[in-house]
Amino acid sequence: MDTADQQSAKHEGRLQNTVLLMVLLNGFTTPLMLSATNVALPAMADDLQLSAVALSWIPMAYLVASAMFVLPFGGLADRIGRKRVFLQGTVAVILTSILAAVSFNATMLISARFLQGVASAMLYATQIAILSSVFPAQKRGQMVGLLVSSIYVGLAAGPFIGGFVIDTLGWRYGFLLQLPLALVVLLVGVFKVDGEWSANSQAPFDTVGAITFCTSLLLICVAATRLPLLDGFVMLVTGTILAVTFVRHALKIPEPIWDVRLFFTNRLFTLSCLASLVMYSATYANVVLLSLFLQYLKALSATQTGMILMLQPLTMAVLSPLAGRLSDRIEPRLLATSGVAMTTIGLALLATLDSTSRISSVVMSLLISGAGFALFSSPNINSIMGSVEARQMGSASGAVATMRTLGQLISMLLVSLMLNLFMGSAVISEENYPVLERTVSVAFGLAAALCLVGMAMSLARGTLHSGKKGASA
């Protein structure tokens, strides 16, 4: 290797390390804020006098916006540059977090959370795509494992740090936890990361597809909280019609915001995506349910609750890099399906909780489900990204983010539906604690049942390392 090649390799190595630092810091900071604010939900309810349904919209507004906009921002990033969208999203997250912190009523807070979700969609749409652009394919599983680990470290640290901050300073400061590191991410991206990555697409941005997708998803999500009222059914039917219209539109144009053709031609891709959707649907809202359970039914403080809730993501953070590395050598289907089975057991144990349950039972269930999800997540992402050609990486990355955010959204919608059915507009108080207990038990039972569906999908997906990548459905 001559001097020029050595210098080029050295520069490439520095760039990879800097990009990895930028993406991992971002992977840590956003879930840090999210998990911290979930612990703060009871404090928000008491301060702003929120009903159970209104309270559920504080995390759900964020998820609705994230799910709506991750695909449009993914398509935009392929055209104008992934780093550009990533850094603009970082600025937007900083500003919207400050707005959420100064909110003085439910309407302002829910609106700020929606805008915060729009900003975060810019990051979700570009994280994996940037890593895939910088690192070679043989390191993809390892890099994805590190990203997933950073996310879970943030999820683990959020409840503990957030609980302490909330008990000491108040819930508003939970939204400000990520700001110092977000500024570091911005400075690293602006001054230390050279170059830009895009698909060099000359096709016009799919504006019709973006509007149709966003509108359909918004209508369906709002409808889920309005059923069985008439306006809920109207919104559900309208949203479904628009969703079908979006798919038909995407099949007709060469470069839609989401290449849905992959779902009709690639079994490994399709079932891996669906398994991700189901698993996030089954697990994401667990922290909200357990936050309510521990603080209301077990009378724990926000700090104590945070210390318990951090155990699950901490387990994921420790095991995810190992699972990612293993998936580069061992068939991801086997690893992921084993993880789904463990997660199912953990959720089934949580479904047996009541006000007399020991805290040790909660801890054991969280450790089992955390280990299971770690074993599922990184190998599953590796399956998705490895099942497509290089030119389809943008669509695959968008699919990873979309399945995650849609699954998280469905999880929160299910919790909101449960709270609406069991508690209605009542403010959570000691008189209706038995109703809250029953709500938590039913919700975890439903989550365990969903995992069984995810297990079937994971088993049926096909193999990645056998040379049959992208097997037809």
What do these coordinates show?
With 473 residues, this protein is mostly helical. The protein folds into 2 domains: 10-192 and 257-460, MFS general substrate transporter like domains (Growth Hormone, Chain: A), CATH 1.20.1250.20; 206-256, no CATH class. It is 79% helix and 0% strand. It has 19 helices and no strands. It has helices spanning 3-39, 41-48, 52-80, 82-101, 106-124, 127-134, 140-169, 179-191, 207-226, 230-252, 261-265, 267-283, 286-297, 302-309, 311-327, 332-350, 359-386, 393-423, 433-460. Helix 12 (267-283) packs parallel to helix 18. It is globular and about 75 Å long. The model is unreliable at 467-473 (pLDDT under 50).
The share of residues in helices is over 70%
Q: What is the CATH H-level superfamily of the largest domain?
A: MFS general substrate transporter like domains
CATH class category of the largest domain = Mainly Alpha
The chain-level structural class is: mainly alpha
Largest sheet: none
What number of structural domains do the residues give? 2
Bin the strand percentage: under 5%
In short:
The protein is an all-alpha fold and 473 residues long. It is built from 19 helices and no strands. The C terminus is likely disordered.
